[in-house]
Amino acid sequence: MAVTITTEQIGLHLIRANWESTEGTPSYYIYLDGVLVHAAVTFETMEIAVADGQARTLEIFDTISHTPTPVQLGAVSLRWYATTDASAYRIDEYVANAWVERTQITDGGEWFFSWRSRNLEDVTSHRFRVVPLLDDEEGTAQEMYFFMVRKPDGPGVDYSYDSGTGKVTIA
Fold first, then answer.
1. Does residue 18 sit within a domain?
2. Which of 48, 73, 119, 162 sits at 20 to 30 Å (Cα–Cα) from 146?
3. Does residue 166 fall inside a structural domain?
4. 39 and 98 within one domain
5. Model's pTM, two decimal places?
């Protein structure tokens, strides 16, 4: 009732995970970043995409009785209700003492909206606002504050992958 996992980097943004169990013919329960992605499967390899600076958490169990470790992802979701007469919404992030526009979302008659941020820096306060855009003016902004606490960010290094040799160079 134990699973052993090994990983190898097979591309600049791709990792292959292989695993085996001490059970005879187990069914696996695979969690990626705390979310069940495969249940009662028998395969023993999987490729996982990893973005720059992203920390992924892979857990594989050979019984359903285990639960994954809670995972805090690096982004936040802003959610808000529609504003009467708004034609769009501007999402701003407060960066270096100034508001920076991140995107605009058109109001197509929906009653509820959601937007996911970029991956945020760890152990840092973050501030966003949603600004309703009316015909000729801005509506009242809704500000949202977050303090990001999760696993530490990956190291700030550059690396390159040579597909011919299969080697990664870290600088």
1. yes
2. 48
3. no
4. no
5. 0.55
What gap in Å lies between CA 163 and CA 158, rounded to an integer?
17
3-class DSSP state of 81: strand
Q: Which domain holds residue 125?
A: 77-148
SS3 168: strand
Domain shared by 21 and 49, yes or no:
yes
Please give the pLDDT value at position 72. Answer: 66
143-156 in b/e form (b: 16+ CB < 10 A) is ebeeebeeeebeee
- Backbone phi, psi, residue 24, to 5°: -65, -65
**Does residue 94 sit in the same domain as residue 31?**
no
In a domain, 158, yes or no: no
Q: Which amino acid is at 140?
A: T
Considering Cα of 77, then 83, then 89, then 93, what sign does the dihedral take?
Answer: negative
